């Protein structure tokens, strides 16, 4: 995981003590959406994990699941997720398939 970096023109909360586990934005594809919500559900109540939402001129908004650097157990779980994604990019086949079908049906 990468640590959050403060951009020069950023005026919000300082999150330098956090790692970014996964993020999505307004225009994310079904796979990113599926993986994001899978991870969010599993991390939302873990120590040191939080969801942070940013406004962005290009994509409207970005929402990220972040882990505090001192939350050692949560960081280990996050590393497991990252390793899983290296082996296979889909965390929940059923959810991903459902999201793809919804897009196909709306076309």
Précis, in short:
Helices cover 41% and strands 25% of the residues.
Assess the beta-strand content as a share of residues. Answer: 25-35%
Globally, the shape reads: globular
Number of domains: 1
Class inferred from helices and paired strands: alpha+beta
- What is the string of helix and strand elements? EEHEEHH
Which radius of gyration do the C-alpha atoms yield? 15 Å
Low-confidence stretches: none
In helices, the fraction of residues equals 40-55%
Query: Largest sheet at a glance?
Result: 4 strands, antiparallel
Helices and strands in order, then pairings?
Blueprint: E1 2-3, E2 18-25, H1 30-43, E3 49-56, E4 60-68, H2 72-87, H3 93-106
Antiparallel strand pairs: 1-2, 2-4, 3-4
What does this protein look like?
The chain has 107 residues and is α+β, with helices and mostly antiparallel strands. The protein has one domain. 41% of the residues lie in helices and 25% in strands. The protein has a four-stranded antiparallel sheet with strand order 1-2-4-3. Strand 3 and strand 4 form a beta hairpin. The model has no long low-confidence stretch (mean pLDDT 93).
List keywords for this structure.
four-stranded antiparallel β-sheet; 107 residues; alpha+beta; 3 helices; single chain; 4 strands
């Amino acid at each position: 995981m990468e640590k959050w970096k403060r951009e020069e023109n950023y005026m919000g909360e300082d999150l330098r003590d956090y790692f970014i586990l996964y993020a999505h934005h307004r225009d994310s594809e079904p796979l990113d959406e599926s993986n994001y919500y899978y991870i969010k559900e599993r991390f939302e109540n873990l120590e040191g994990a939080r969801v942070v939402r940013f406004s962005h001129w290009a994509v409207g908004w970005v929402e990220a699941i972040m882990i505090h650097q001192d939350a050692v157990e949560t960081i280990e779980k996050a590393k497991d997720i990252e390793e899983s994604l290296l082996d296979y990019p889909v965390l929940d086949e059923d959810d991903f398939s459902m999201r793809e079908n919804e897009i196909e049906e709306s076309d």
